[in-house]
Amino acid sequence: MKQIVKETYGSIADQSKAQNETSCCGATGCSTVDEAIMAEDYEKLAGYVQDADLGLGCGLPTEYAQIKEGDTVVDLGSGAGNDAFVARAVTGAGGKVIGVDFTEKMIAKARANAEKLGLNNVEFRFGDIENIPITAGVADVVVSNCVMNLVPNKKKAFEETFRILKKGGHFSISDIVLVGPLPKALQESAEMYAGCVSGAIQKDAYLSIIKEAGFSNIRLQKEKKIGLPNEILSGYLNEKEMEDYKNGNLGIYSITVYAEKNDEKSCCGPECCN
Question: pTM of the predicted model, to two decimals?
């Protein structure tokens, strides 16, 4: 699955936002989900760089991240650098922004964008979110935009997020979650996985993973239901299944979730210790 994600987003890195939005379904043709369906509009935010916006997010985490001037911000799954450059506009010349991505073409594109902007306090590192290449206790704030759903081991990813945050630090993460089970054909599709849907998990399970990683003061900052168009659903479901899907309780949601690292994880007794 990681290889599928890398190949999909590697192809998208070669395209502009306009190309992704005007093509039928993004970089890989009409049999997959258009990543731009879930994207939000960044253009009014300070620090916005058009060349870094490929329309791949599902929220505006930097808008909710409570970044302060001088903060060190880490962007997990930084892509072409969109959220990193918006974060840089807030943290300023006295802060630092580190983007992490495991698609080589995205790292190259982000670095080229930073070079054009002449920013010496924004860097992009190649790495896996399940093993973040950053020293413990570095970040004041972590942001991420529609990336954690693509990570197979979400528990490890959030534990790594906890590790790199300073005590008293926090994250604001936008992601895709589910309420109710996806139809089997959607859940098992690797292409839907790369399009941010089949890699998503139930909202309650997602929030539980965050709590188990040690975070506190967990709250939803934004929640929006996502509607998939008929032309996409019809590639996976027959007519009756589509009707059941639309009329059932199933929901695909974009959420922005906030959480804090107030204390180090500690053992509370035999019921929670390995």
Answer: 0.80
